């Protein structure tokens, strides 16, 4: 069995998706449609802009989705469609890419939702007040406990359970720094402050969750062609009302990626295709399920390799 998985923020690079657009008209059409949906040339920023502007949350989110969908449309042009997978999943914003690929959301709606999501997440907490840190070498339960103990009168929580030895914490800057220091004392190999401008996937994102609840209420969501493994439940979902609720919960909830991959392997998935920019998910998957076959689909060369 196979799962198609879609990357989240942090995978962005200038130039991503350009080769796909040059090689496949269907991939080029993705970038054209996203540009039209947003009323701007996001494709120009993706291919020829500067990394600082591309990395701004409101740009990175739709840009990464567009690149994933361009890769997916290229696969379809080669005769590989969504039913070649038994499940889809995505890391944070990648969940929107997964839903788009599975036909639950239109491409235009997905682009507009992610632009709004990025703006709302950035505006939820004033710059400088929030932070995130990656804790390496400790398991989720340990990091979760350390975060709760370090919170004091602030907020810090386990935001991303990425793999058996990588957990990201998020919250008020001072509380995150306290938790990172405590994690080092508890034996973490590293505690790295991340170059982000907002505390994603923490309760501090509640204003953004409210914005997304309003936006999603007005968007048509269809049952996906294959089940989505939802970030906040690490379980399959297919009913549109449940998808809508979980996308709102996802803004403030923990990304349960380790458990999601475990659920997939327990369900019989042995092959994962990471569709879009970068290879971050592939590394996580190999640390969670060492026997899994992992393939990256981000360039025409990757697609040619699939064909043998």
Automatic annotation (TrEMBL):
GO terms for cellular component: cytosol. Coiled coil: none annotated. It comes from the Bacteria. The keyword Mitochondrion does not apply. It catalyses: holo-[ACP] + malonyl-CoA = malonyl-[ACP] + CoA. GO terms for molecular function: [acyl-carrier-protein] S-malonyltransferase activity. Its EC number is 2.3.1.39. The active site is at 92, 201. Residues 5-302 form the Malonyl-CoA:ACP transacylase (MAT) domain. NCBIfam families: fabD. This is Malonyl CoA-acyl carrier protein transacylase. The gene is fabD.
